[in-house]
Amino acid sequence: MTHILSTRPLAHYRLRVVQADAATADVPAALARPALSFAATVAAIVLVAIDLRPGIVSIGPLLPHIRQEFGMSNAEASLLTAIPAMLMGLLAFPTPWLAHRFGRDRVILTALIVLMLTTILRAFSGSVVMLLASTVGVGAGIAVAGALIPGFAKKSFPKQAAVLMGIYASSLGLGSTLAAGLTEPLANLGGGWRFADGILAIPSLTAIAAWIVVATAEGRTRALVKETSTSARRRLPTANPVAWLIALYFAANNILFFGFVSWTAPIFRELGHECHRCRAPAGRLHCCIHGRESIGWIDQPQ
Question: pTM for the full model?
Answer without folding.
Answer: 0.78
